[in-house]
């Protein structure tokens, strides 16, 4: 260990300033088409980072929250975690003959994704609670990571972690380069998200807020461990999102990014705060490259948030018009 | 906003390295007497920060968790938050005549701190739930900050936020200077802690884990807000601590600091992980400068954790022998 103090404070200051210099917006948001959507993002970031400007926000208050399913990666043909849970049901079914006659397991074994998705978060969470319990968080993350490394999305015929949105990856990087702390606030399970979010999005485990099942501290042969139980602890959706953000972060975000009515309260609460605020909705209107859905979709239904967008000044992204590409052309291996 | 990329990468690298250089241990831990306790701290930090060494730990995994009451500030003559709650009971009593005949309010109005403290976290949390509910988290933090700015600890005749332990402040700084992320993991209420922890300890709101009451998202005249309800949500004590740490941070800490049996499971779980681990117990054996208590104390009882310390290699701090001073000589204004 080198124990010495800075010897060239001025040099250090200059260099640190250069290192922290934000990326060129054009370079950073390369997959965003020119137009009012990209301009709104760039303008907002310029306002809150201009030292001495009227809307300057200190770095520690530059909190940005992102929904995951449908905002950072695809939720088609169904939530990825639901598809993972279905595979877990199949893997565990031989030990559970009663599942053949019991919902939601029966639908899961039949591969009836539509029926499951239509029920919203509750049956999904019940499947998750049952099929994701047993071991500790690290065991579960290993299971999820293993599945993600091999399973294939049936619609896009690609690994799930390659179906992230390239423009949103650039947006995450751009915000972080401008001193923002980026959080994921998802209805998905927190340990499922932790299995891939750091590699996929550069978001570390402590910046992930999600749904959870009950976890208990136990001593196994005198050795302390955590055990996941088949019981829902918290569903991080709708009005749960602002509550969870406050519990976890303790600051109201200044920017929120979502794509469905599950993000409505998070958008409302974020943008109702004093000072500069930013709300953005990813609108899936791109049937050719990904999917077109909103008001009538059982997955990622978007109706109320879309209706409220104009009155709050939320930016609505048209995937079709605003994005040059949807998925990364050279995904991570 | 300056939009440019680093032009002198080598210069920047050198300067950033110098800036990140850890403080001299001697300087940083100035209030710790020479001896095995301080040496154990310095040795552990050297092990985990020596690049290329066998026990090197990457900065993002250098998580240190600190209990608050009795570990970072005094818990004598009673938990500070309990004394705050008593003052809240008195302030709110005129609107609640029924409290004169109902426990724990009756004891609170009689100022019977001993009776309340002896019950452990539950009656304290009931008082807190009732007297701390009503507004939003920001309203509550303002109330707590206002009280902390004026109230006086009856034993030490000083403001509560001046009764922090100087050697522990230095330890927090020393760990952070060595790339650690410092978290508070307290049985106290998370919003109460947030009212002072950043100023007192340099710990930001998102690194505070604590007990909580139920908080709900509401629309008031169409305006989104959070409302605190008179109902306990989570008690962050004993086996709750490892559970909350996992939920919040998603990594097992490599160092844990506590002072009572409420910290036992956090110490067990932290130090049972693979690789280098550090556990420390502040033992209150200094009747002259602060207080001497352990096994028989209703506040901060320390028995099982003290018994288990040798088998786990936890360092037991003698306030009397290891600390040059207890409280800051020049407290923050």
Automatic annotation (TrEMBL), chains A, B:
Signal peptide: 1-20
E.C. designation(s): 3.1.3.3
A Gene Ontology term for the protein's cellular component: cytoplasm
This protein's record includes keyword 4Fe-4S: no
Requisite cofactors: Mg(2+)
GO molecular-function term, one example from the UniProt record: L-phosphoserine phosphatase activity
UniProt-listed SUPFAM superfamilies: HAD-like
Catalytic activity line of the entry: O-phospho-D-serine + H2O = D-serine + phosphate; O-phospho-L-serine + H2O = L-serine + phosphate
InterPro entries found in the cross-reference section: HAD-like_SerB (IPR050582), HAD-like_sf (IPR036412), HAD_sf (IPR023214)
Keyword field: Amino-acid biosynthesis, Hydrolase, Magnesium, Metal-binding, Serine biosynthesis, Signal
Pathway named in the protein's UniProt entry: Amino-acid biosynthesis; L-serine biosynthesis; L-serine from 3-phospho-D-glycerate: step 3/3
Single biological process term from Gene Ontology: L-serine biosynthetic process
Keyword S-adenosyl-L-methionine: no
PANTHER family linked: PHOSPHOSERINE PHOSPHATASE
Name the record gives this protein: phosphoserine phosphatase
